[in-house]
Protein 1
Amino acid sequence: MKPSLLVATISLAFVAAGCGQKDNQSQSSAAPAKAEASAPQAATSVEVTGGDNMKFSLTRIEAPANTDFKITLVNIGTQPKEVMGHNLVILKPGSDVNAYAAAALTAKANDYIPENLNDQVVAHTPLLGPRKSADITVNLPPGEYPYLCSFPAHAQVGMKGVLVVK
């Protein structure tokens, strides 16, 4: 065999061996990236329904802290808004849900959101009629935020819950 052909063959073998190792290294380093990408992430939105039974579908919602989080309220009921409207009012931690609901009784003109207690409200949807929906987006620090439907008597029969932000 000619020396130049022998050198070329050996060189080609080294290059091929080096490429194979490089491919193995890139495959092994790519595997952790795939594992990270498929790791479960905190939800950034949730849908809550309320119907003619005066119950929310969720009485506990968990959200990530300091991240935009969307809550969609859907009124799945069939009765008119005037007799079975629903909203979702998120209050500050430590707020008295029952006191808020009692004050809401006199706030019909404001969709049962008592203006004198606005300092307790983090966010709220409008009052919804049947087959309507509304979104609210919050970005909150850690804590437990009570929420309720402020339509008369709804919170008293159980249309309330807690938004746990961690």
Protein 2
Amino acid sequence: MMSDPALNQSLFGIDGAALELRSARMGLLTSNIANAATPGYKARDIDFAAALGAELHGTAADKAMAGATRYRVPVMPSLDGNTVDMGSEQVAFSENAVGYATTLSFLTARIDTITRAIRGE
């Protein structure tokens, strides 16, 4: 079930959109790492700023992510055509995980505030 993007944006602001994008990016990075030994695999990533900007300007989340997905340019080309650089992928994964946890903390605090307001505390 898809939720109303306008309602999510008003309740959760930029954090809701950011969490969704970070989750999608985590999936791409995980796929890159899992396919590090697959001949011909082309590593992909999401241009987070471009996707978030598009989503905040009304583009549907799936279209914003698709439009901001890019193939990585390899630092050192592989003989088998695989463009995964394990070091770069691990750094990107770690940075994204920290961003995800931080965004989740912001959302949790916002939900706690809304819950307290509803209860009248």
Protein 3
Amino acid sequence: MELVQSNINARISLGEREAFEYVYNEYYEMLLYVSMQYLKNPEDAKEAVQLAFVKFWQHRHEITEDSNIRNYLYTIVKNNSLSMLKSNEMIARNRSDIESKDLQYRYEALSYLQFDEMEFNELQNKINEAIERLPAHCQRVFRMSRFENLKYREIANRLNISEKTVESHMTKALKLLKEDLRPYLPLIWMITNLLD
């Protein structure tokens, strides 16, 4: 697979359309899935992905043998999707919810992408350890949101607290997780762009 990836990168850089079609077919569905998590609209998601491939082709000369095409496309699609949300003024109204869902979807994406199993296990362990280190209230709210897929309102009702308190715990949890996982950002970036 390493040789194939290397060859694909070189062929893309040289502008071979057959190599571009291979990359398109290889990553289109995964990128559409990523975009749908943000936009919730199939047409908008398709547009975000198409624009990503256009940009990828326009900047094909920047592709080197070591370039990670999957991560490159993932980043473009994520940025396209967020830009589309921002243009609809949705990000201002739903910033906290979007950020928490962003972490969830990136975490879930680990199981959809192919990479070295040892790196996958190491990253999962680091994430799980970081969650374990969260303050009790933050950890409980985070787990209910991320692993039980409960909405803020449902968590608030279960814990008999306000939605604002739930949002505050989630915001703090996300901030602490990003700080705690900062030493592992190179590994995280290499695998799935889990955190910004």
